Amino acid sequence: MFNHLDNVPADHAVVVDLPAGAGCMLHQEAARLIANEDLGMPTIHVWVATPGEDSVRLFRDLMAIAPASRTAFVMNKHNDESLGRFDIWMNSRTRAEFLAEGGLEVTLPKLPQRPHDMIANQRLPFPSERPASWLRGDWFTFLSFRAAVEREQASLIRLIEEMC
After folding, report:
1. Is the pTM here over 0.85, yes or no?
2. Which of 23, 34, 87, 95 sits 20 to 30 Å CA-CA off 53?
3. Which 3-state string (H, E, C) describes 48-105?
4. What is the maximal distance between C-alpha atoms in the chain?
5. pLDDT tens-digit profile of 114-123?
């Protein structure tokens, strides 16, 4: 990845989607991330968290190299409308320090089951127009979800726009 960054125009952002478990590699890649910033390419870190203790512990390691003001901690409500699954994070000193230093906390709303299954079964990207096979009510449910995602991600999108 780093070998191709010289070809990116200065007014573009690069989004790198790392696989689950990439946080474990943080210690090995920290020097490269810092060196990349020293070459004038700032980084926004988006940490998609799991509810467990490991995610909070690994995130704490990230805080040592990533400015909180350019980092987002994302909690995916996936199967649960509440944030109860994230009680370890919600009650942690790491969270308190992160927010005090200007970190972004983002919540992804739960995608209702029926639109979720329709997207998965039809192997669709998130649709921008109503698929012909979707009932009107399913489309309205999806639009409501998409609007909630856009509201939640607004602060992260602003941060990305400010850096471009």
Report:
1. no
2. 34
3. EECCCHHHHHHHHHHHCCCCHHHEEEEEECCCCCCCHHHHHHHCCHHHHHHHHCCCEE
4. 51
5. 998 999 998 8
d(CA 119, CA 12): 29
User: Starting at the edge strand that comes first in sequence, how are the strands of the sheet with 104-108 ordered?
Assistant: 45-49, 71-76, 104-108
pLDDT of amino acid 23: 65
Amino acid sitting at position 123: R
List the one residue out of 38, 69, 97, 26 whose CA is nearest residue 163.
69
Give residues with Cβ within 8 angstroms of 16, minimum separation 6. 1
Over residues 88-97, the pLDDT tens digits come to 999 999 999 9
Q: What is the dihedral of CA 84, 90, 151, 46, to 10 degrees?
A: -120
